[in-house]
């Protein structure tokens, strides 16, 4: 699989899970069927944009995601100098200042299973 396919698939899965949370919140029982028989333990990470965190906040669990994730604070640019030594040549904020109270974060998908597996009726 190429990277764009994997990124699209992860984005789709997150949307399905968020829709499920909304439907469960409306009192409708749902079931998500996944071909994996177990929780994700390693090798899967997902980036969450600040707008996604705002949606998660509306469901009441953005704070835990925020605390357990790695925050993407800045983007650094590196280039070789005149001697060929790699040096940092620039740095910018990762998220536009003032866009949201959240910043982009990276979170292991295994960590993201907990809010989804504990939603809705037993």
Keywords:
single chain, 122 residues, alpha+beta, 3-stranded antiparallel beta sheet, 4 helices, elongated, disordered N terminus
What does this molecule look like?
The chain is an alpha+beta fold and 122 residues long. It has one domain (3-117). The chain has four helices and five strands. The strands form two sheets. Strands 1-5-2 form a three-stranded antiparallel sheet. Helix 2 packs across helix 3 (62-68).
What number of structural domains do the residues give? 1
Q: Helix content range of the residues, please?
A: 25-40%
Mean pLDDT: 75
Order of neighbouring strands in the sheet with most strands: 1-5-2
What's the assembly state of these chains? single chain
Number of helices: 4
Q: Give the helix/strand class.
A: alpha+beta
User: Using only CA atoms, what is the Rg?
Assistant: 18 Å
Question: What fraction strand?
Answer: 15-25%
Contiguous low-pLDDT stretches (5 residues minimum) are 1-10
Strand elements, count? 5
Summarize the biggest pleated sheet.
Answer: 3 strands, antiparallel
| Separation of the first and last Cα atoms | 36 Å
Overall shape: elongated
Spell the H/E element sequence. HEHHEEEEH
What is the fold's blueprint, element by element?
Blueprint: H1 3-25, E1 45-48, H2 50-58, H3 62-68, E2 70-71, E3 74-80, E4 86-93, E5 105-108, H4 109-117
Antiparallel strand pairs: 1-5, 2-5, 3-4
Helix pairs in contact: 2-3
């Amino acid at each position: 699989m190429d990277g764009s396919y994997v990124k699209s698939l992860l984005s789709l899965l997150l949307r399905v899970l968020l829709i499920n949370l909304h439907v469960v919140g409306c009192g409708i029982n749902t079931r998500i069927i996944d071909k994996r028989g177990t929780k994700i333990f390693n090798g899967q990470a997902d980036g969450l944009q600040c707008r996604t965190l705002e949606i998660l906040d509306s469901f009441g669990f953005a704070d835990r995601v925020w605390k357990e994730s790695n925050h993407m604070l800045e983007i650094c640019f590196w280039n070789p100098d005149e001697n060929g030594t790699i040096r940092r040549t620039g740095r910018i904020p990762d998220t536009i200042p003032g866009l949201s109270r959240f910043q982009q974060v990276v979170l292991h998908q295994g960590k993201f299973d907990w809010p989804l597996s504990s939603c809705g009726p037993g």
